């Protein structure tokens, strides 16, 4: 059985402080995106796809996963859902016919623009929010790194 000291050390660790802060941030983020019917990972994928259109002629699922910093299987599920919701287009690739190429469509660009504007304001406000509970979480994480 773990000792009381080990349990206390775990409960007071930076990891636990960070987890509490992340949980709060994630909950608030979801609330912001709910009116757009998007999740944060979906915004990540749309943003990665849009960014890649400035750099690449043909974009694949693997490229999007790498750019979005997410697992390829997770990216696949998100891309399938975004295609079903008519935010991205999938079509046969020119370089490899077996590969599907991706493109963010007009609907996706509009949703992404709205999401980025919302998230820009959210991020700015979240980190400077004077909510005492949130500030306590931020300070707890910071103290562990000083």
UniProtKB/TrEMBL annotation:
Gene3D superfamilies: Winged helix-like DNA-binding domain superfamily/Winged helix DNA-binding domain. Residues 3-146 form the HTH marR-type domain. Transmembrane segments: none annotated. PROSITE patterns: HTH_MARR_2 (PS50995). Keywords: DNA-binding, Transcription, Transcription regulation. PANTHER family: TRANSCRIPTIONAL REGULATOR SLYA, TRANSCRIPTIONAL REGULATOR, MARR FAMILY. This is HTH marR-type domain-containing protein. It comes from Fructobacillus parabroussonetiae. The lineage of its organism: Bacteria, Bacillati, Bacillota, Bacilli, Lactobacillales.
